[in-house]
Amino acid sequence: MKDAHSHSVAEANSRSYNQLARERYIQGAPHIGHRKLAELYDRLLSRVFSCAAEHTTSPSVLDLGAGEGSVTRKALAFGARVTAVDVAQARLDQLRQECSKHSAMLETIQSDAMPALESLRSQGKRFDVVMTVAFLHHVPDYLGLLRQAIGILGTHGQILTYEDPLRYDSLPSWSRLVSRVGYLAWRLGQGDILGGATRYLKRRRGIYGREDADNVEYHVVRNGVDQDAIQRLFTEMGLRSELTRYFSTQSPFWQRLGERVGAVNAFSVRGWKP
């Protein structure tokens, strides 16, 4: 039953992201649209590749949930060999076209992440870096996925997650309020207000349907992603880790306000083999 549910969520993501225009995706992606979030991501990524450069001149990178390709493009610019995995073939086709000058350094795999990890592991593949950016919240069993990802890290391997929502019940009440109001202010300009309001009220009562809207942003519409459980998993599997909390929302006004008052609602975790 668990596998069947994960499969239905993967199908929902495939339908949504094959149809969603890149420009519209970027409009709803704070980590791409807001300068300070992009700068934070660049600092985290530079740290990862600086550490990788101590052991190899051309690190192997696995980009899970490659999406619109920002991770892959940055990794290729660092001189990495990249395997990009995404459930949406349209995204991968666009990525290969945009990165044609790096074609010898880029492999794409159209697949749900978990089967891709199992296949790569069975082939004996190992990676210096595994990246999941704005991705874990799409995966019902994200801890299982991370366990599999850690299993294919090389000797000095690292894993970096970015742009997932902190577990909501771990947030200070005022941070949660700023986050919720900021999202609603942005959502009012996105259309389908009645449908969105109906789904919101149902979710507040713990009712989730089978429609794509309740499955694509799986943990966003539930209780967020458990950052503490991720760090416990990393420790259990012999990794050291560091957690970075920050604020992220779609609205430029509310993003600036959230940053100014020190609100937090999102996180990144870097794990590495000592």
Automatic annotation (TrEMBL):
Domain of life from the UniProt record: Bacteria
Any Pfam family matching the protein: Methyltransf_23
Organism encoding this protein: Methylacidimicrobium tartarophylax
Keyword entries, A-Z: Coiled coil
Coiled-coil ranges (or none): 85-112
Positions of transmembrane segments: none
Keyword Membrane: no
UniProt key word Ribosomal protein: no
Name of the molecule in the record: 2-polyprenyl-6-hydroxyphenol methylase
